[in-house]
Amino acid sequence: MFLLDSHAHLDDEKFDSDRDELIEEIRKSDVKRLISAGYSLEGSKKAIELAKKYDFIYATCGISPNDIPQNEEQLCISVQQIRNLVEQNKKIVAIGEIGLDYYWNKENKDLQKKAFIMQINLANELNLPIVIHTREAIMDTLEILKTNQVLKKGVFHCCPLNRELVKEALKLGFYISFAGPITFKNSKNADEIINLVPNDKMLIETDSPYLSPEPLRGRRNDSRNVKYVAQKIALVKKMKIEEVAEITFSNGEEIFGKLI
Predict the structure, then answer these.
(1) Spelled out in words, what is the top-level CATH class assigned to the domain 3-256?
(2) Rounded-to-integer distance, Cα 203 and Cα 239, Å
(3) Where are the chain's structural domains?
(4) CA distances from 200 to 177, 203, 230, 249 (A)
(5) How do residues 181-225 score in pLDDT, each as one tens digit?
(6) Per residue in 110-127, pLDDT tens?
């Protein structure tokens, strides 16, 4: 079985004590490809380092809404630095994670929007898809995507289980990535959302070290646990887990290019 963990944060400090050992354990599992997601300038650099070191790891580069500089001048400099990173490294498969987050930051909405649009434009210029983070900002996220063309589309990572968001995202041509929350016992509409997403538009991820799926909630998450996300989708869609693995791996290559 070939699994793709389409979004993990291997650079996170929670992995500092055993990162290399853990990556070797992941390599021995059914996870055959892994995308280490940047969320800041430093996080993007670390994701690139891991992609260079390990042949089965790829990287995304971007500045998340929770990590943007707090003035427009510095934001422009940071986005230019992201551009430089991408232009110098071949294993970067997307710009991200980028987007809007009004849960953690309500005071800088305009700057978040500017950062999102600037990085959409960067992705278009570099012919790359985007990886979208949205939290308590669904309407503004969709409005930006409707008014700013995204040439290579991309994916809503750890997509909120919101019916209208998923419907509109699919209409716009985006993929939906499922993570640990679909396995949670209190996730009331997970089955409905899973069935709402066509097989050719779904991905799986861990968002590790966060959001450990059942039956591992409360523990540090890692890419090996993406199998539990695949199992949940297989159960809901009445498929074999091997089918879910094959479909989501293929979808990942449709978005990010051949992961060889």
Answers:
(1) alpha beta
(2) 15
(3) 3-256
(4) 11, 9, 14, 10
(5) 999 999 989 999 999 999 999 999 999 999 999 999 999 999 999
(6) 999 999 999 999 999 999
